[in-house]
Structure to design on (368 residues):
């Protein structure tokens, strides 16, 4: 047991490594999930998300390192507590529903176990099924449900449980957009009410940034960046991280006198002053990240519209410039046609420099 000072962590991974027969799937990951916090594990397929979750749940032992749950060490390479001994609710890609139980009983069961009356458990379960649009299937067993419907029953059951840690492995992969939104909203509300923590694996950056308090970016089993969604979006550690977390243009430009959070950037002979970190290198040919909202149409710079895409609430303009192509996103319908010369300006940038200062570290991320 550890002292109370650390009891705000529902999960702590210490230098966790997990191998399959010599194949390294998780590589020295250290990570904490605090009470009431949802951490998204974001990474492409094969980056080790499922392996990490299975190790936390107790289905796989660590090769090296330790897993701690609520200040209790539950797994080392020598000794791992079985899944039943861990206060963890799991929603994996395979739903693992009880074959003999109806959808309603499946969801009511964990509510009954919390001590609710049969009636109250039924009502709450029915309400959850209704939220996920499957109340009309309440009496069916898994064999009588489609894959997507089974998935929703599994999600309702997980939401109904009161665990100190929830593990989700791409739970919305087979849901349509609307049900997915309902589920994610419900997850946020319940998490706030219960104080449980969550570890949520997804390869979908928009989902990860939209739902998590912090995002852990995984590449080939390694934690490459850990931070708030805003940090990952605005201050990616490298180009790979930038591309994985949203639309990313890179301009190569000369930077002059960076200070006070601003710097002068020279693009095609014209100087613009932009928001940039204080340690932006002052030299020629600096690769500068530009997110779609960081550049605007209209201004002192010139370019040619390569393409215009109408996306409903906004339009994406791809502008060919002397320093590279830049994607500009503006609200409303198209204002210019592809092929025309346009003026534009840059408001903000983030230098893409190999920098150890941005290394993933659980210690220097302050979420309080
Ligand atoms: P993700 O969930 O991010 O897609 P996984 O954790 O499933 O990633 O896989 C991580 C790595 O481990 C991949 O290289 C994958 O091929 C490998 N892997 C996963 N499961 C097994 C297994 N049962 N046996 C051997 N290698 C595996
Ligand atoms: Mg997976």
């Amino acid at each position: 047991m550890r002292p109370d000072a650390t009891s705000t962590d529902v999960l702590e991974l210490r230098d966790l490594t997990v191998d399959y027969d010599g194949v390294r799937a998780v590589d020295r990951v250290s990570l904490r999930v605090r009470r009431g916090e949802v951490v998204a594990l974001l990474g492409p397929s094969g980056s080790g998300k499922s392996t990490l979750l299975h190790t936390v749940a107790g289905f796989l032992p660590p090769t090296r390192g330790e897993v701690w749950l609520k200040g209790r060490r539950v797994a080392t390479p020598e000794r791992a507590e079985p899944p039943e001994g861990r206060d963890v609710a799991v929603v994996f890609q395979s739903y693992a529903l009880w074959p003999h139980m109806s959808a309603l009983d499946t969801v009511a069961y964990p509510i009954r176990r919390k001590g609710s009356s049969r009636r109250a458990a039924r009502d709450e379960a029915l309400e959850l099924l209704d939220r996920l649009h499957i109340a009309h299937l309440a009496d069916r067993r898994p064999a009588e449900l489609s894959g997507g419907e089974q998935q929703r029953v599994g999600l309702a059951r997980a939401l109904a449980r009161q665990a100190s840690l929830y593990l989700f492995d791409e739970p919305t992969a087979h849901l349509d957009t609307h049900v997915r939104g309902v589920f994610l909203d419900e997850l946020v509300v319940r998490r706030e009410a219960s104080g449980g923590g969550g570890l949520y694996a997804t390869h979908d950056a928009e989902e990860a940034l939209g739902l998590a308090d912090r995002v852990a970016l995984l590449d080939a089993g390694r934690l490459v960046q850990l931070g708030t969604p805003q940090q990952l979006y605005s201050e990616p550690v490298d180009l790979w991280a930038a591309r994985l977390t949203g639309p990313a243009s890179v301009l190569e430009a000369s930077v002059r006198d960076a200070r006070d959070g601003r710097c002068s950037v020279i693009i095609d002979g014209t100087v613009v002053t932009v928001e940039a970190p204080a340690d932006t290198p002052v030299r020629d040919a600096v690769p500068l990240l530009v997110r779609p909202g960081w550049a605007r149409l209209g201004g002192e710079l010139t370019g040619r519209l390569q393409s215009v895409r109408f996306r409903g609430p906004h339009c994406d303009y791809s502008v060919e410039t002397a320093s590279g192509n830049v994607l500009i996103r503006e609200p409303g319908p198209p204002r210019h046609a592809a092929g025309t010369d346009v003026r534009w300006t840059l408001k903000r940038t983030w230098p893409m420099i190999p920098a150890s200062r941005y290394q993933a570290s659980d210690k220097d991320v302050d979420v309080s």
